[in-house]
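Record 1 of the preview.
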Amino acid sequence: MHRPAYIRALQRSQLRAAAEKAGAALTCCTLCPRQCRVDRTAGETGFCNTGERARVASYNAHFGEEEPLVGRRGSGTIFFSHCNLLCNFCQNFEISHQGEGWEVDDRQLADMMLELQARGCHNINFVTPSHVVPQILAALIPAAEGGLDIPLVFNSGGYDLVETLKLLEGVVDIYMPDFKFWDGAVAEQLCQAPDYPQVARAAIVEMHRQAGDLSISREGLAQRGLLVRHLVLPQGLAGTREIMRFLATRISTDTYVNIMPQYRPCGRAHEVPALGAPLSSEEFKQALRQALEEGITRLDERRRVFMLW
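->
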């Protein structure tokens, strides 16, 4: 039986040390590439608009995630409010930009994890966690002490600082970053982060170093490793071919990738003319061809079959 990484980290006091180091960073927050340097423990907020406590928008068994995460009983998703990226086309605009949700303390967050496990979820899936790494680490201690023993998924936008990811080494089992944009000018226009491409590349290299290629059990469930998401954007704005080439040559040809077709105009997408219409089926098929041509063949099947049917 697979044993989640954080169980050993708790036993070795590594988890407590990581939680303490991450918590101390909140007094002058440089946990993400925005480098806001605000004192979140004193109520100050930076780009992510989050203070000392995390905000949660929802938590539930989710059946819309990737096949190896969902299984028969769902992925135990915890959606955090706010975001350190704030894409103008975000499909969760009310959560990421407007902060829908409620503040939780460590015990409440731990109880959410334990409840999701008790409901039979196959993993705990932290959605948009980059700005609340200290809160996650702190809550994981009582959760693990209370019997949590299913894999953790770090489901981020890919805008993650390597130094912060190193605090999660030996704690997170499955990394699931987006790789959104290859072009810095596009990233600047869509999320005010011209450094996104290089940040995401470095983050994904670090995630793969820690966890390796995605390993899947005989039952078809993800146990450990890297799973990359890529949302295809209209008119080639995401840079799909270049991203797939990077994954194949710099990470691994066995990288598990979910090429996602569900783009539709949301949030402030109307501000960018190229984003004014949903993705066409032909644009998605072209993205799949590009992935295969660049050597990425380990693709999440459910969305692929749905779009090509």
